């Protein structure tokens, strides 16, 4: 015999409590200070089967089978039919299960088949059971909203992981190409390259899986990459990087800044034979972070450097991680290309190093 899930037991318990509360209120409400609680309870129990039938037929047959599938006409007609049938059962239960054994004197004035009583009982059912049905549907709506929110969050996490997985091989491919070119041109510097590459991979494998990392860690990661490129290009590359502002307590999403620099090398600097330059500015204030990457490119081409997968992925990640508080601008000029990322910062972005240590330990 299959075991019921705890959520099913909890749902059954909620329904039992709701019906007990309803019967209790019904007994007290119709008493009119006559202290006929036992008689009122027996009357309520005699009417209960019709209420249960109408409530649960509506909840578990008519609403999911017709209302939620947008079959409104069928839902209305079947609900009216169920209401009339249960209204009849309501009165018959009252007549035979309560009046006959407990108030036989009323049988002289009441009839078991009375259309007026059927209609009145149907209206009473609509009011009383309708409240319970409405309460259940409100709970159902809240649960669906929570499930939808959880689904959205889960989908965002899956998409974000997919985007990171795309960035990492892209970066590794470019770096290994750089290492290959360097080992054939200047083997004595291969040891430094391997060391910096190991530091880069360590950051990608560990910090890259965290939700946020200290900004100095991201800057250090960026500087390791630039050191590799500086070795590769030598005197052909004029490189400038400036970091200003209170960066110590700021946390950002990992692997967020490098694709801008990768893009500058891949679509601009790598296509120039000499006099290539790259200027990077990172400015942090209490309200925003501004990251600018400007690079030279051949003057004869008007191709936008943003065609690589790096910036495309970053644009998607920004939508997921910093919705409604980021701005990405790109200026493709003659001989130059400028990408500017602006992040609006909140108090939650400024935390202590202890938070980062806790994340690393938990990971």
UniProtKB/TrEMBL annotation:
<feature type="transmembrane region" description="Helical">
    <location>
        <begin position="12"/>
        <end position="30"/>
    </location>
</feature>
<feature type="transmembrane region" description="Helical">
    <location>
        <begin position="117"/>
        <end position="138"/>
    </location>
</feature>
<dbReference type="InterPro" id="IPR036890">
    <property type="entry name" value="HATPase_C_sf"/>
</dbReference>
<dbReference type="InterPro" id="IPR050640">
    <property type="entry name" value="Bact_2-comp_sensor_kinase"/>
</dbReference>
<dbReference type="GO" id="GO:0016020">
    <property type="term" value="C:membrane"/>
</dbReference>
<feature type="transmembrane region" description="Helical">
    <location>
        <begin position="50"/>
        <end position="68"/>
    </location>
</feature>
<dbReference type="InterPro" id="IPR010559">
    <property type="entry name" value="Sig_transdc_His_kin_internal"/>
</dbReference>
<keyword id="KW-0418">Kinase</keyword>
<feature type="transmembrane region" description="Helical">
    <location>
        <begin position="75"/>
        <end position="97"/>
    </location>
</feature>
<feature type="domain" description="Signal transduction histidine kinase internal region">
    <location>
        <begin position="159"/>
        <end position="237"/>
    </location>
</feature>
<protein>
    <submittedName>
        <fullName>Histidine kinase</fullName>
    </submittedName>
</protein>
<keyword id="KW-0808">Transferase</keyword>
<keyword id="KW-0472">Membrane</keyword>
<dbReference type="GO" id="GO:0000155">
    <property type="term" value="F:phosphorelay sensor kinase activity"/>
</dbReference>
<dbReference type="Pfam" id="PF06580">
    <property type="entry name" value="His_kinase"/>
</dbReference>
<keyword id="KW-1133">Transmembrane helix</keyword>
<keyword id="KW-0812">Transmembrane</keyword>
